Amino acid sequence: MPSFNALTLSHQFMTEHVKPSAFCIDATAGRGYDTAFLADLAGDNGKILAFDIQQEALDSTAALLAERNLSNRVQLILDSHANLEQYASPESVDLICFNFGWLPGGSHDIFTHAESSIVAIDAALRLLKPGGALSLCIYYGRNNGYSERDAILDHLKSIDSKEASVLVCQFVNRQNDPAIPVFILKGI
Known about the structure:
Oligomer: single chain
Strand content: 15-25%
Strand order of the largest sheet: 3-2-1-4-5-7-6
Number of helices: 5
Shape: globular
Helix content: 25-40%
Largest sheet: 7 strands, mixed
Order of helices and strands: HEHEHEEHEHEE
Structural class: alpha/beta
């Protein structure tokens, strides 16, 4: 059976919503795979901002981008995703992606928190162009438990349906806390 998980769904969604010359934000760069994916989709004239609070994550991202000759399309930013609005203008971004949880292969003691993640989601909605999209993958369990997952899912219910459509997907027959993919389309 082919791989079918939060990441593959997220990448399919991004492929549908990122066109050449797009302006995108990877709000949680991690090891750089989503950053590189967005840079490929946006092409030579695209612009990508990639955020992370861990220098280790940005170093991994920089190495991957250099390996794939994509460095010129991406600006790496050592800052919290809660500060997105300091780096982009309202209604200027085509797509923003998030992976909430911890750095893959990194310490499970460092992870995202509901307080900053909810601020970041709200900021992302203000930054999106009309018709823009958000892709969220919520990783939970282990050291960060379930509080961020629960707070984000509860917050998503409060988004005005006239402003955006929110789709929450769930793998109901998977064991061990499978990631939850969420897709948000901002109204036109």
